[in-house]
Amino acid sequence: MARSTSRNDQLARVASELKRGDWWKNARARKQHQQSVWDRLISLLFIPAWLGSAYGLISLAVDIHSRTHPRHVGAPLQGTSAVAVVLMIVPLGIACIFVGGVVANFVVYHIPQARAVLDQEALECPGIDYRSTQRSLLKLGIPSFMLAVVLAVVGAMLR
Fold first, then answer.
1. Residue 29: pLDDT above 90?
2. Half-sphere exposure of 125 (CA within 13 A, CB side)
3. What are the CA-CA distances from residue 20 to residues 4, 30, 109 (Å)?
């Protein structure tokens, strides 16, 4: 599949808007086109998807930490260095922001009534459509998620 360099490529558009200095004005204009109840549902679903995925992955990192340090006594992270705890929690919490965005968009877009409204909004304001939004979230999310997993494993191995 060829890479998109069209005006619907959100990352390229945001980068050029930041260089020109008009990103804030354009972001506000785009948000004016996203006022439906379905957009609010995406925002509402984002929070549990983000926090749920972060909780699950952080729990997995703590479990890996507990298994690699079997003689540890007490609460799972009691006595663990601050660096290890930060490496297990912060990167995964940040990377799961992208997971929450992808999941919320996916769930809402697969409701037929929502799809019709969201597609109509995207016609009025190019670049806010489902495909380009998901593509942008994945372009940023996959590398950050991979880095977060590596950092969390390093944190889990530390004492």
1. no
2. 18
3. 21, 17, 32
In this structure, how many other beta carbons lie within 10 angstroms of the beta carbon of residue 123? 10
DSSP letter at 110 equals T
Q: Two tokens at 96?
A: 């799961």
pLDDT at residue 33 greater than cutoff 70 = no
Q: What is the DSSP letter of 127?
A: T
User: Helices (DSSP H) in the chain: which residue ranges?
Assistant: 10-20, 23-32, 37-68, 82-109, 112-124, 130-157
Q: Which of 22, 24, 42 is nearest to 34 (CA)?
A: 42
CA–CA gap between residue 97 and residue 108 (Å, rounded): 17
Mention every residue, 6+ apart, whose C-beta is less than 8 A from residue 79. Answer: 72
